[in-house]
Amino acid sequence: MQKCLNLDFSDLYDENDFEIDNEKIKSKNQKSNQSQKSNKSRFRQKDGSNFPEWETKKLGEVSKITTGSSNRQDSILDGEFTFFDRSQDIRTSNRFLFDTEAIIVPGEGQEFIPKYFIGKFDLHQRAYAIMDFKNINGKFLFYSISFNTNHLDSQAVGSTVKSLRLPMFETMSINLPCLAEQTKIANFLSAIDEKINHNNTQIQKTEQWKKGLLQKMFV
Fold first, then answer.
1. Quick one: pLDDT at residue 7?
2. What is the structure's pLDDT at 81?
3. If exposure means fewest CB atoms within 10 Å of the residue's CB, which of 59, 102, 119, 142 is most exposed?
4. CA geometry: angle at 187 spanning 182 and 192, to 5°?
5. Sheet of 91-93: strands edge to edge?
6. Same domain, 80 and 95
């Protein structure tokens, strides 16, 4: 993410794992000369030409940011809809306030880790939903905010429990390529997330298998 929001893809994965537009991404050795020329890796258009230059906008210019109206006691364990509050735990609710694509950020706490969600959800009054994106790929914006949480950390107020205010979100600077390049970046990073999730699942299955073997060997 450091180089797609200043990225050198060759440092991130095995060259055989991913493809972009059906062309294998060049290996680290193949790309070493190019990497020396620039610290920023860019996708190209289908005809091989460069995408337009990136521009900087405020988050409040390209999205709607709002809080919910629910409290913790409105959440339940087996509700129909997802409930987001200030914690990293995801609970449920029997009602929904929004039905949309959104990036959820807790408004209080020690860490302000965003979540990406599409669908119906309930929202705590001290959690923020970033939505109604204007010419923005929502997943790209999610990765951008995830990568730049230092802005939120630096703007949070309070000593024991830090909190965020709406203007802190609205004034957050976002570096934006054109929509087509946003989509390429979002799809690329999503593919890496899928690979990570798959590997984590395999690790969990292997740990369970090992546990079963230990029970058979030592019981």
1. 44
2. 96
3. 119
4. 130
5. 64-67, 127-131, 98-106, 115-123, 81-84, 91-93
6. yes
Tell me how far apart the terminal alpha carbons of the chain are, to the nearest angstrom.
47
Residues 104 and 195 grouped into a single domain: no
Task: Please indicate, yes or no, if residue 4 is contained in any of the structural domains.
Answer: no
Buried b (16+ CB within 10 A) or exposed e, 95-111: ebbbeebbbbbbbbbee
Structure letter (DSSP) for residue 78: S
Residue 119 has pLDDT above 90, yes or no: yes
CATH number for the domain harbouring residue 126: 3.90.220.20
| pTM, 2 dp | 0.75
Task: Determine the structural domain holding residue 70 and report its residue range.
Answer: 57-176
Q: Among residues 8, 13, 74, which one has the least CA distance to residue 41?
A: 8
Annotate 187-201 with b (16+ C-beta within 10 A) or e (fewer). ebbeeeeeeeeeeee
Domains identified in the chain, total number: 2
pLDDT one-digit tens code per residue, 17-70: 444 444 444 444 444 444 444 445 677 888 888 888 899 999 999 999 999 999
Minimal CA–CA distance to 135: which of 188, 190, 180, 185?
180
pLDDT for 155 equals: 80
Residues 112 and 163 in one domain: yes
- HSE-CB of 182 using CA atoms within 13 angstroms: 20
Residues 166, 67 within the same domain: yes
Distance CA 46, CA 37 (A): 22
